[in-house]
Write a structure and sequence with these properties.
- The complex is a heterodimer of chains A (151) and B (388).
- With 151 residues, chain A is mostly helical.
- Chain A has six helices and no strands.
- Chain A has two domains: 37 residues; 80 residues.
- Chain B is of the alpha/beta class.
- Chain B folds into two domains: 213 residues, Rossmann fold; 163 residues, Glycogen Phosphorylase B (Rossmann fold), CATH 3.40.50.
- Chain B has 15 helices and 14 strands.
- In chain B, strands 3-4-2-1-5-6-7-8 form an eight-stranded mixed β-sheet, sandwiched between helices. A six-stranded parallel β-sheet of chain B has the order 11-10-9-12-13-14, with helices on both faces.
- Chain B is globular and about 65 Å long.
- Classes of the chains: A mainly alpha (151), B alpha/beta (388).
- Chains A and B meet through α2, α3 and α4 of A and α9, β14, α13 and α14 of B.
């Protein structure tokens, strides 16, 4: 049983789903802060949800979250295996591993540069958005102040 | 009272359109309440082409006279789809374009002429989005009760639609959030609205029967209805695929209804498309599911959610749908997610806590029996007809 499900109590008079949703959201927020959802797989699963949320006020935060999860090209090693066994499978695995080493050697510079570019672009977009948001908030506050004065 | 119901298509058994089912159900309730009822509809079956496929004429069914009229011929469908596309993108269109969009959509001049030349005391029309419904509302607005099935979408902000809402006598809404949305978007009199919805006969079903008949013994999530991006089905497929990969848990996805679904190779063998099923089969599939998942954000009332509670299954819905979220929170029969991590955590909760699943399902069932029993809905409808 995972930590979310274990902590939730069910009373004799039933369940308050509002409370369960709040508890689950709080647990998810903690896990998110700990980086447990930082993976490209989740960003890919969210592609249709971003369309759903496009008019929502949380859209930009969700969008940046997905962008952060997916912006880095995965250049780590991965397990290379061959479903065919025996001596043929053994040699095929060796060949695949050699090809991967060569590819990694020749393309590492390109990948790492691409990751640097992606990081810089993301940081720039986030900064621009933050500045714009601050400006919008300040203008909204000013309009409200002027409207209060007029009334 | 002599009542006319106007709906572009007639509900037939097995029809997936919820609005048609709702209008027909209200018409049947009106008959049971002792009113004289005529149901005015078109000869169309297909809600994309609006081809006149059925015979024009009238017949008696369920104690009411059903009259079918031809859809206007020579519609400029290119212009209709062009303007519709612009509106759906949120573009502002001119009044003349709005008029063209309404007139070139589904319409029937013969039906409207019949309506104008009859002596109906009330006209009940819906859903809001069709040219025919707008024409019926504007033909005798002082007598019309609109059943809007309203969603928060760009079409709801079209000038002519706003005018229609602000002209009619009153409204029969499906839920409180739908009513609140209408009052937010339009300038409506508070006493013009009532929440009526649709009655559902309670039923009992064996939760083990689907597994027995289908051989699907793994836990599964169910979706029933039209499969299309607007209903959120691609999101559900992606989420279940990601859930299986990340958690390593066995969880299948079962769908009933119509429409294409794009299934990734990693999900093949764990996705079961049952297509159209009978009511009894649908109830059995619902009863065996861990949860009924409704990922749509555009609903005015989810009948399938109520049915799944009657079948003893809790719901999992998208929080962006005010209505579905409201149904789950007011019944305490389901949970709502905003993103994948929340979906994953809620799904794990549902899989690992059968005690919670059972309690939520019981609460959902009790709520449905109390609020949506046919007698309760009929009483609300009778009161609305008297008071509005």
């Amino acid at each position: 049983m995972n930590s979310v499900t274990a902590s939730i109590k069910i009373g004799a008079d039933g369940i308050d789903t509002e409370k369960i949703v709040e508890e689950i959201k709080a647990t998810v927020a903690k896990k998110r802060a700990a980086g447990l959802y930082d993976e490209a797989r989740i960003a890919r699963a969210e592609k249709h949800n971003l369309v759903t949320l496009k008019d929502d006020e949380t859209f930009i935060q969700q969008y940046f979250l997905c962008l952060r999860q997916i912006s880095q090209v995965d250049i780590n090693d991965f397990e290379i295996f061959e479903r065919r066994g025996g001596i043929f499978g053994y040699f095929l695995t060796k060949i695949k591993k050699s090809i991967w080493s060569l590819l990694k050697f020749y393309t590492y510079r390109m990948w790492s540069q691409q990751n640097q570019i992606n990081s810089l672009l993301l940081a720039a977009i986030e900064t621009v958005n933050e500045r714009n948001q601050q400006e919008i908030d300040a203008l909204k506050a000013r309009i409200k102040e002027l409207e209060t004065k007029d009334n | 009272m002599k009542l006319a119901f106007v709906c572009p298509r007639l509900h037939e058994p097995g029809t997936v359109g919820g609005a048609e089912t709702l209008l027909y159900s209200l018409a049947r309730d009106a008959v049971l309440l002792g009113h004289e009822v005529e149901f005015l509809t078109t000869c169309a079956r297909n809600h994309y082409s609006w081809e006149n496929e059925l015979q024009e004429g009238s017949f008696i069914r369920d104690g009411m006279t059903i009259r079918r009229f031809h859809v206007n011929r020579n519609r400029d469908t290119d212009a209709f789809f062009r303007i519709q596309e612009m509106i759906s993108r949120g573009e502002k269109v001119q009044e003349s374009a709005e008029e063209k969009w309404l007139r070139q959509g589904v319409n029937s001049d013969t039906l409207i002429d019949y309506l104008k030349n009859s002596d109906f005391e009330r006209v009940v029309a819906g859903p809001y989005l069709f040219g025919l419904v707008e024409a019926a509302c504007m033909a005798m607005p002082e007598k019309t009760l609109l059943v809007p099935c309203l969603h928060d979408e760009h079409f709801a902000r079209v000038g002519k639609i706003k005018k229609m809402f602000e002209s009619v006598r009153g409204f029969l809404f499906n839920t409180e959030p739908e009513m609140a949305l209408a009052h937010k978007l339009y300038d409506l009199r508070p006493q013009s609205s009532a929440v009526v919805a649709m009655g559902i006969e309670p039923f009992d079903v064996d939760p083990a029967s689907f597994a027995r008949k289908s051989g699907i013994a793994t836990d599964y999530v169910l979706y029933s209805g039209r499969r299309e991006p607007l209903k959120g089905t691609p999101l559900l497929v992606d989420y279940i695929d990601c859930f299986r990969e990340r958690t390593g848990r066995y969880l299948d996805l079962v769908m009933t209804g119509s429409g294409d679904v794009d299934i990734p190779p990693s999900m093949r063998g764990n996705f079961h498309d049952l297509g159209f099923v009978t009511e009894e089969e649908k109830r059995e599939v619902m009863a065996g599911a861990v949860a009924f998942c409704h990922p749509s954000v555009n609903e005015s009332l989810s009948i399938v959610l109520l049915e799944s509670w009657l079948a003893g299954t809790p719901a999992l819905v998208h929080a962006k749908s005010e209505v579905l979220k409201w149904q789950c929170s007011s019944s305490n029969g389901g949970l709502w997610f905003s993103n994948y991590p929340e979906f994953e955590a809620m799904m794990l909760f549902l899989l690992d806590r059968p005690d919670a699943v059972s309690t939520m399902a019981k609460q959902g069932r009790a709520y449905t029996v109390e609020k949506y029993a046919p007698e309760a809905v009929r009483a609300r409808f009778a009161a609305a007809l008297m008071e509005i």
